[in-house]
Amino acid sequence: MDKIIVHGGHTLSGAVKISGSKNSALPILAAALLTREPCVIHCVPDLSDIHYMLQILSHLGAQVERASGTVQIQAENVSTTAPYEIVRKMRASVCVLGPLLGRHKEARVSLPGGCVIGDRPIDLHLKGFRALNAACRVEAGDVKVFAGELKGSTMNLEGRQGPTVLGTGNVLMAATLAEGITVIEGAAAEPEVVDLAQFLIKMGAKIEGAGTRRITVEGVKELHGAEHSVIPDRIEAGTFLVAAALAGREVTLRRVNSEHLNAVTNVLSESGFQLNIQKDTITVKGNGAPRPVDIITEPYPGFPTDMQAQMCALLSRADGQSSVTETVFPQRFMHVSELKRMGADIAIEGATARITGVPKLSGAPVMASDLRASAALVLAGLVAEGTTEVHRVYHIDRGYESIDEKLMGLGAEIQRVKQSAST
Ligand code: EPZ
């Protein structure tokens, strides 16, 4: 397992290009199962999670070709079972259920396990499928969904922790081929759901209200192939904004959709950073210690849970007391113990991290645990005194395309070291 070594104290400057969105590309690639015609998807990031999704689609029988950032998929004849040995690698595989149910009226997918950020149930996905007249059963670790015919209806997909992003996408994909009208209330309004809906509409689906909490679908008989470019990754962009705030002189992000980052840029402005925000670029200037802020993670357009760990790293250097409250994944604080190894002063009280800024962080060997926690540790290493070794960086590679090379391009002293499997 590789590790990333960061030598702190180097200021960042220059420009970095943001890749296509992982969380948009994954359901869009799955949506190609809804038609027998070829689909062409551009700006697909080169990530292990994307690799796993392409493996699943191939295993199901789709023809998959990838040429740099473009993927061509043709699912003429596909099976409807996604096996454990592939699904276990990535819980987002669950988003093949909806398109398989829509196209073939049946699907069998291994139940996704939990992960370090908390339990990852799919009860809301199944609630939506049942509302479309499908039967859902859990058998031997697999979830089976099947229907004689899919019938549209009105449903509410909001759970105790708010809306479900992949659940909204899953049910939306099935509803495009259900008979009649489907209304999804309590829908997720994330930009990734909007991007999926845009792709489905290009395939011939009839969808209104994507990006609001109420989405209406009029079922059609079949969908055709389409071509689409995935939106920029707002979480990768937010991660680089925090890197620049922590260690920057002046950094410009290119190929962003700045509208998708309002909650993050608002917090950085409140914390005292100067931002020059244009439609598809954002420039941020580092200017020493951040001002303390209080953050609550919320569904879009609120502050994203996927930026919570990165903000904990930034606020560890603030000149005062901050608080970060997690309402989407209340246990998502695996990064805190590792940041404390670097000298951060953080106390967890329930779903809130109370952060007392410290004048400096110290480099240390730390362990990556999940995708965004790993990124937060690399960011902390940029400003820590001495050297930080982040182990098990396969977590980072799931969601960041060449993060070490992109940071090196901005002036960071960072390197990836291949390690034997035993470590
Ligand atoms: C998506 O996960 C993202 N992943 C996550 O990003 C992101 O953190 C999350 O949305 C929230 O924004 C992808 O898009 C591939 P949810 P998803 O269903 O859809 C509960 C990253 O770092 N819930 O919106 O799986 C759930 O436990 C990843 O890129 C149910 O109770 O998340 C959570 O508390 C991490 N029942 C809340 O809802 C369900 O059936 C939101 O989960 C589904 C979810």
Task: Walk me through this protein's architecture.
The protein has two domains: 2-19 and 232-418, Alpha-beta prism (UDP-n-acetylglucosamine1-carboxyvinyl-transferase, Chain), CATH 3.65.10; 22-229, Enolpyruvate transferase domain (UDP-n-acetylglucosamine1-carboxyvinyl-transferase, Chain). The N and C termini lie close together (6 Å). Helix 1 (22-31) packs parallel to helix 2, helix 5 runs parallel beside helix 6 and helix 10 (308-315) packs parallel to helix 12 (371-383). The strands form six sheets. The chain has a four-stranded mixed β-sheet with strand order 22-23-1-24, with helices on one face. A four-stranded mixed β-sheet has the order 2-15-17-16. Strands 4-5-3-14 form a four-stranded mixed β-sheet, covered by helices on one side. The protein has 14 helices and 24 strands. The relative contact order is 0.16. The mean pLDDT is 95. The protein is an alpha/beta fold and 423 residues long. The structure holds ligand EPZ. Ligand EPZ binds at residues 23, 26, 92, 119-125, 159, 161, 164-167, 188, 192, 305-306, 328-329, 371-372, 399.
